[in-house]
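re: ur question from yesterday

yeah so i grabbed the chain u mentioned. its 291 aa long if i counted rite. heres the sequnce exactly as i have it in my notes:
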Amino acid sequence: MPILAGMFAGAILYTPLFLLYINNVINGFAFIGSLLLLCFITTALFFFYRNHGVKQIRFFISAAVILLVLLVFDFQVIEYEAATYSATGYMEPIDLLEDSGLHVLPVRIEPVAFIEDMEWLLEGFEANDIDIYHVEPVTNLDRYISKNRRLAALGGFFPDGLAETEENLISYGYSNLAFSDDFFEREDLEGNSAGLAIGLKAMYERGELENTVPIGITGAIEADGSVSAVGGIVEKLLTSESEGFTHVILPEANLEEAEMAKKSEGLDVEIAGVDHIEEAAEVIREMNRTR
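ran it thru and got these structure tokens back, copy pasting raw so excuse formatting
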């Protein structure tokens, strides 16, 4: 019981600090500093009570251990403290097969550190000819999620998006796609949102699909050919509009978000939501029949 009570006490001490941090009341340095202080206090209490009985010793040891584990787990939030904004913007669409009309829709992501002045930041982007769509402030919750994703990736629990996409395409029957070799080796791309486009390009290369319509395509592909949701929908629609694409094919799971973005941004591009790569291929065939 003293061990469980000590573990519970450590968690109770940690919780208010965590809530203060997540809600942006304190910064990462104050969060980690406070955890260090609690570890020191509980360790000091252990030495103070070490002659008062086994129960007290076990209680303070278990409380100190729990706090130390949480400190180690959360320590990396300090590395993200400099992040102030996250900017998303235009990145040139990619047609891996020349003149196929089937375009991957990447999104440019510009992390911003130390800069607090939004106006000065936007002027900097403009001066460097970087076309930015949206700038969002980075919150402590964003920093904490980024830290956890990094730890998950290091532990092998958060697979690389491009590698996962390639594996799913192979599982579905699209292997030895020479046109995509350079794509999967690019260091300026990440995530799994190109899977649907690459699968459709494989069908185009095999002669299973013809297309003369300029189409922007986004969507993650699973091993069974199903299409799952992706991020950056607003940015991808804005890029498609600026490039003059008449249509965008995206996951059905993102369709409501896309329709709302189309309305709010006043876009003319036609949107089609799909649940499977074969459904996407049929949508393209229909587009070309009615062109």
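noticed a couple things. The mean pLDDT is 89. also The beta strands are 83-89, 102-104, 108-113, 132-137, 215-217, 220-221, 227-228, 247-251, 270-274.
anyway ttyl
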